[in-house]
Design goal:
Chain B: Keywords: Cell membrane, Membrane, Transmembrane, Transmembrane helix. The complex is a heterodimer of chains A (287) and B (626). By secondary structure, chain A is an alpha/beta fold. Chain A contains 10 helices and 10 strands. In chain A, 35% of the residues lie in helices and 22% in strands. In chain A, helix 3 packs parallel to helix 6 and helix 5 crosses helix 6. The longest helix of chain A has 21 residues. In chain A, 48% of the residues are buried. Chain B has a two-stranded antiparallel sheet. Chain B has a two-stranded antiparallel sheet with strand order 3-4. The chains are: A alpha/beta (287), B mainly alpha (626). At the A-B interface, helix 2, helix 3, helix 4, helix 5 and helix 6 of A face helix 15, helix 16, helix 17, helix 18 and helix 22 of B. The structure holds adenosine-5'-triphosphate (ATP) and magnesium ion.
Chain lengths: 287, 626
């Protein structure tokens, strides 16, 4: 993996620590099921925030509320102080990019094309300019390609730029999702289980990648079941249990919280058979 | 949105690699080779003999010393099989037809020869009433081609690996219990040829001038083969021709020849495109026959419309079941401003460019009107609405006759006597002599339509390879992910829909003039004569979704084959459906696959173990809860 950092063309950076994303009172109901209950979460610039919780806790649903894929039943999400409309493309345009837990690449497009699609919000060329192909079009296209190649270099996929996305090994597909999300030049990157199904080396490489992303001035909100990964990486961790935010704080605080341990192990009287199990990891990660 | 861990997917979907090389008939190597070559020689010799006594059989096969009719198919098939076999046997100088020295290529070409020869022999016996009508030559041909095929079967053939002994075949359902069924099934599975990973020498290393020469020769040959097929006088001969060409191309592909040619056209893109256009423009000169020029225009029109539909269906993944209505809108718009005395504006006669723009604009407006309310929805709504729109268009046009509704389109009688176009003083309705050639009315329209087709091809390729085209494909691949990447799904789909409609409208303006009149009937969902929406859709699916040449090839095949095989006329829709089912089952990517080329170029790296499928729909439900 390379650690060269491509230059970031949008330097409108707020000072570290200013609130970037503010979700307040987010509630998501599916019929009788309340998947997310009144969750508040703030992500500040320059931060890596973790979101953990047992399976079915509502983490992915919360992500979908943030990115406009779901319209929250109640609550608002604002980014850099303005309330986001619940439309995915507008959220991305505003500066929030995401990856998916169940990889959702454009399978029959090449690796490079996948990243180019990610550039959509940062380019303007419409149908007419594609048909006429004036010098402006060629310049924009060349710039997009150069930027996409930079990102592939950054994620270590440059050698496979012409491969179809569906032919990549699993770990590289996850990386490509990150590269594609970064192509939209986000201020905040949402990662949904970026290391699920990866081996320890790949996980460590992803760790480095997330740090490198943060060093570019992009804040990261990451869902993960791999506790080592989370506690290595995050400045702050929020725990979601049955749709509710149980605890939020530094790694140490969360690690020692009784309620978190109980939530992962189940209620005390059920805990007997789960003796050997630690708070680390869910079954996705043991291959 | 369901989130399913993929950790268990690898075990379930182990990549199906590996192969085995084994003959179908066990014979010593040299015996197999000798049988193959002897079969080829005997078959070639047989075509110089008489196959039947009477000249009643199409194509006169009674002459000795001079192959005619279907004998030509057998002759060509046997010669090519022989050369390909010599290539496979590593004879220097014969490798050019079989660059990967593949026995699979020999086998398939032997199959083509066997197919056309036995078809002929059986056809003679059936048509004339018994095998008594066969001359000795016919028997020699039958035996020779059989020997050729048997010899090829005894060559080592690259096939799928042996099935594991403990494999279970759930797909057989209740037949899984029957040992006979399972044995035949296993035999069939193991018989599947497997040559996708063949290696061929890189044709791009040839001398650049030689590369161009090859391109020119291949295109000229292609034109020759095409016109030869079109000029066949009988369905019998055309069917024999079809067998040789289809199976033969498959065989040459198995030997890597087509891939080498692809490498050449890929390297010399512009040159290949230019030569292709020249070859297409040479078609009316090569044929000099109004009937075939008419066929050419029709193929170009339906091919162009199918290409427009391909933007909507193939690139963007929107199912449009009423697309032919946009062709109708364009045709009617052009007819109304053509100066026909049956138009309500009979005094108005636009020049062609203005009529073309009118047709496009009208179709575009209708595209937006239909698309705007429906494209916000996902799934099947669009299919249903477009299906409805297609029918509504036809019925409305039928009723705008001054009796049931306002008089605009003359109802079922349509707008007749549309005057021929005249472009820069060149009257497309008249004959024009160029040297020794005469360009008739249809040849003129063919050339005009060729220009339109080129424009549409250009629009398609440029749009597909651009920001907007990528967003279409992204929406086709995964609309949720596409919108999460910042694509405004509705807007982008509307652009695709309107562009597709406009291109159909453009083709419609020419269509109106070629047919001299516009009537409501052709613009239906499905019917025995093209263009109808089902035909166009079939052309796209059959030819290859998302490709440029696919829909044009698909439209050409679907148009020409029923035209040439008159015995099909009663069963045309049935044959259509059958062809679609077979294609969907055995070659879902269409005749001309998309993107495969890139895949093949990276064969070595991509077959590495540990690759995983994308998406959660490939994970069996049983593992989903893991
Ligand atoms: N579209 C939907 N309709 C109905 N219920 C849903 C929908 N999406 C999610 N849910 C439910 O909401 C709950 C939270 O699911 P979610 O996918 O957000 O969990 P998660 O925390 O991401 O779990 P995991 O760690 O397994 O990914 C689950 O009970 C799920 O069944
Ligand atoms: Mg989840």
């Amino acid at each position: 993996m390379t650690t060269t950092i491509p230059q970031q063309p949008t330097p409108e950076q707020a000072p570290d620590g200013a609130p970037l994303l503010q979700a307040s009172g987010v509630i998501m109901r599916f019929g009788g099921l309340t998947a997310v209950r009144d969750v508040d979460l703030t992500v500040n610039t320059g931060e890596i925030v973790g979101l953990i919780g047992p399976n079915g806790a509502g983490k992915t649903t919360f992500f979908n509320c943030l990115t406009g894929l779901y319209v929250p039943t109640e609550g608002t999400v604002s980014y850099r102080g303005t309330v986001l409309p619940p439309k995915p493309h507008l959220v991305t345009k505003a500066g929030i990019a995401r990856t998916f837990q169940n990889i959702r690449l454009f399978a029959n497009m090449t690796v490079l094309e996948n990243v180019l699609v990610g550039r959509h919000t940062r380019t303007r060329e419409g149908l007419m300019s594609a048909l006429i192909r004036g010098p402006g079009y060629h310049r924009a296209e060349a710039r997009s390609r150069a930027r996409a190649m930079e990102l592939l270099e950054f994620t270590g996929l440059a050698a496979k730029a012409d491969h179809l996305a569906r032919n990549l090994p699993y770990g590289e597909q996850r990386k490509l999702e990150i590269a594609r999300a970064l192509a939209s030049e986000p201020g905040l990157l949402l990662l949904d289980e970026p290391t699920a199904g990866m081996n320890p080396q790949e996980t460590r490489a992803t760790e480095e990648l997330v740090f490198a992303v943060r060093d570019q001035g992009i804040a990261v909100l990451v869902i993960e079941h791999d506790m080592r990964f989370i506690f290595n990486l995050c400045d702050r961790v929020a725990v979601l249990v049955q749709g509710e935010k149980l605890v939020e704080g530094s790694s140490e605080v969360v690690q020692q919280d009784e309620r978190v341990i109980a939530a992962y192990l189940g209620e005390p009287f059920e805990a007997a058979p789960a003796e050997g199990q630690q708070t680390t990891g869910e079954q996705e990660n043991d291959r | 949105m369901t989130d399913i861990p993929l950790a268990t997917a690898e075990a379930v979907l182990a990549p199906d690699t590996g192969r085995r090389t084994a003959p179908f008939i066990p014979l010593p190597r040299n015996a197999a080779r000798a049988a193959t070559l002897a079969g080829a020689v005997v078959t070639i010799a047989s075509t110089f003999m008489s196959w039947t006594y009477t000249t009643d059989f199409p194509g006169d096969l009674t002459v000795s010393g001079y192959p005619g009719g279907l004998q030509v198919m057998t002759l060509i098939g046997a010669i090519i099989t022989g050369v390909v076999a010599l290539g496979a046997f590593r004879l220097k100088g014969a490798a050019w037809l079989n660059p990967s020295r593949s026995n699979n290529s020999v086998l398939l070409l032997a199959l083509a020869t066997l197919g056309t020869t036995w078809y002929t022999v059986i056809d003679i016996a059936a048509k004339l009433g018994g095998i008594a009508n066969l001359d000795p030559g016919g028997f020699v041909a039958a035996v020779g081609s059989l020997l050729l095929f048997a010899g090829a079967l005894a060559l080592p053939i690259d096939r799928r690996p042996q099935e594991p002994a403990d494999a279970e075949y759930y797909e057989l359902g209740r037949f899984e219990k029957s040992a006979l069924v399972v044995r035949s099934y296993v035999w069939l599975r193991e018989a599947r040829l497997h040559h996708a990973d063949m290696r061929v020498a890189d044709a791009r290393k040839l001398n650049p001038w030689l590369q161009r020469l090859v391109i020119v020769v291949v295109y000229a040959l292609g034109l020759k083969i095409l016109t030869f097929g079109l000029a066949t006088d009988y369905s019998d001969i055309f069917l024999g021709y079809l067998i040789v060409v289809a199976v033969g191309l498959w065989g040459l592909g198995a030997g890597g020849l087509l891939r080498q040619f692809q490498q050449l056209t890929h390297r010399n893109k512009r040159f290949a495109a230019t030569v292709g256009i020249i070859a297409a423009a040479a078609y009316p000169f090569a044929q000099n026959n109004e009937h075939w020029a008419n066929l050419g225009v029709s193929v170009l029109i339906v091919g162009t419309v199918a290409l427009g539909l391909n933007i909507v269906v193939g690139l963007t993944g929107l199912l449009d079941l009423g697309y032919v209505a946009f062709l109708g809108v364009g045709a009617y718009a052009a007819a109304l401003v053509s100066g026909s005395q049956f138009s309500i504006w009979s005094g108005v006669q636009f020049p062609f460019w203005a009529a073309a723009i009118t047709g496009m604009a009208a179709a575009c407006v209708f595209g937006v009107l239909i698309g705007a309310p429906t494209l916000r929805l996902r799934g099947d709504y669009l299919a249903i609405v477009t299906l409805g729109f297609g029918e509504i268009f036809r019925i409305v046009v039928r009723n705008l006759d001054g009796v049931s509704g306002p008089k605009v389109t003359n109802g079922p009688n349509g707008i007749a006597q549309i005057p021929d176009l005249s472009i820069f003083g060149y009257n497309l309705g008249a004959n024009h002599d160029i040297g020794s050639f005469t360009l008739g009315r249809f040849a003129n329209y063919y050339l005009l339509m060729l220009v339109i087709t080129m424009i549409v091809v250009l629009v398609f390729t440029r749009a597909a390879d651009s920001r907007i085209g990528r967003s279409w494909i992204a929406i086709r691949e995964d609309e949720t992910a596409a919108t999460a990447m910042g694509i405004n799904g509705f807007r982008v789909k509307l652009v695709a829909f309107a562009l597709g409609a406009s291109l159909a409208g453009l083709a419609g303006t020419v269509f109106a003039h070629v047919t001299n009149s516009v009537v409501p009937d052709p613009y239906q969902f499905s019917g025995p004569v093209p263009p109808n929406s089902a035909f166009l859709l079939a052309a796209v699916v059959l030819g290859g979704m998302g490709t440029v040449s696919g829909p044009i090839v698909g439209a050409a095949l679907l148009y020409v084959i029923p035209e040439k095989l008159d015995f099909l006329s009663k069963y045309e829709l049935f044959a259509f459906g059958l062809a679609l089912i077979l294609i969907m089952r055995f070659r879902p990517e269409g005749i001309i696959p998309n993107r495969r080329r890139q895949l093949e170029f990276h064969e070595d790296e991509t077959t590495a173990p540990g690759k995983r499928p994308l998406g959660d729909d490939t994970v069996p439900a049983a593992t989903a809860g893991a």
